[in-house]
Amino acid sequence: MTARISGVNHITLAVTDLERSISFYRDILGCGLRAVWTNGAYLEAGDLWLCLSLDKSAAPSRRDDYTHIAFSASDADYAVLRQRLLGEARLWQDNSSEGASIYFLDPDGHKLELHLGSLQSRLAHYRAHPDKGVTIVET
């Protein structure tokens, strides 16, 4: 058997204002604050362990590519969170993918997405739309 990773352990984001970022992830996105120290914080988003690391030298993210982190929510929570984000966050892209999504920036310019769906629903979408040119790899 080939060794392989089992999942994402945690994600660390460099932030320039720790309190502002804690407030965004806790109050806007509903992440659970689990630990705070002088230069950082740990938050929980479902099974995701998110670390905010204070780095005053970090320049706001100005990536022009599609690199981003996508979060999940229930249908009911998605609607509430989407409304919050529309009032509090800058959007960086319109949704053109399968499933409802809102693409937004955190206070330091990290590209984020809130998405309804799963890998299974995305694969089912492409199975139903072979004209999209995506080859599904069956395991």
Automatic annotation (TrEMBL):
Location of the VOC domain: 7-117
Pfam families: Glyoxalase
SUPFAM superfamilies in alphabetical order: Glyoxalase/Bleomycin resistance protein/Dihydroxybiphenyl dioxygenase (SSF54593)
Stated name of the protein: FosA family fosfomycin resistance glutathione transferase
Family matches, as PROSITE patterns: VOC
Record keywords, A-Z: Transferase
Keyword match Transferase: yes
Single GO term (MF): transferase activity
